[in-house]
Amino acid sequence: MPTTDPRVDAYIAKAAPFARPILTELRARIHAACPDVVETVKWGAPAFEHHGPIAGMAAFKAHCAFGFWKHDLIAPDARRSDTAWGSFGRIESMADLPPKAAFRAMVRKAMALNEQGIKAPRGKASARPEAKLHPEFEAALAAAPKARATFDAFAPSHRREYAQWIAEAKRDETRARRIEQAIEWLREGKSRHWKYQ
Question: What domains can you pick out in the chain, each with its CATH number?
Answer without folding.
Answer: 6-115 (3.90.1150), 135-196 (no CATH)
